[in-house]
Amino acid sequence: MSTRKGLKLKKAAVMKMGTAAGLTTEELYRELLSRLVEDATRDGLAETPERVEKAMAFLTQGYAMDVRTVLNGALFEVEYDEMVMVRDIEFYSLCEHHLLPFFGKIHVAYVPSGRVIGLSKIPRLVEMFSRRLQVQERLTTEIADAIVEAIAPQGVGVIVEAQHLCMMMRGVEKQHSATVTSAMRGVFKTQTQTRNEFLSLVRRGGGEI
Ligand SMILES: [Zn+2]
What we know:
Blueprint: H1 2-18, H2 25-36, H3 48-59, H4 67-71, E1 75-77, E2 84-95, E3 101-111, E4 115-117, H5 121-130, E5 133-134, H6 136-151, E6 155-164, H7 165-168, E7 179-186, H8 187-190, H9 192-204
Helix pairs in contact: 2-3, 5-6
The protein binds zinc ion.
Zinc ion binds at residues 95, 97-98, 100, 164, 166.
């Protein structure tokens, strides 16, 4: 009995710490601002904590979504077994190391094996994974693996071309260089011809690779 009571108390203490001594998210951003600038009370900043809270909630809304819900009702049986490609999907994400944006284009292709995904759902998948705190490499593989899991295709290829503000703003990288990552699954990995077809379709669209 006394042990259970002890546990309960401990849990309550942890929860209190978890909310940073009872501060709301807006108050946390206000506190952060006051540590960054000389006068956090000036007019221009009055509404900033509330705005930042909303912006960050929007930019990380991908955590509240899952693959199954996003693809719900958009998987179709087909006999088609040629490459399906959605090119130049714009994306905006936040790097998890600096909470600064990285953004660019994503090209997704797959060769079906009896099932396809409704075309409009591929950009939705990209959106779901990019509206989380990310690293470019993980964003790339998560999109590929989600498609493998959803329709078990013959193969999937994903290429991400991005510019990272955390590097550009700090002068770490030349201003216009892009970071390119790719994830190849199934026939995109094992068959040079399939991979080359994908790469040439990306290039034809003006991609950097
Ligand atoms: Zn970064």
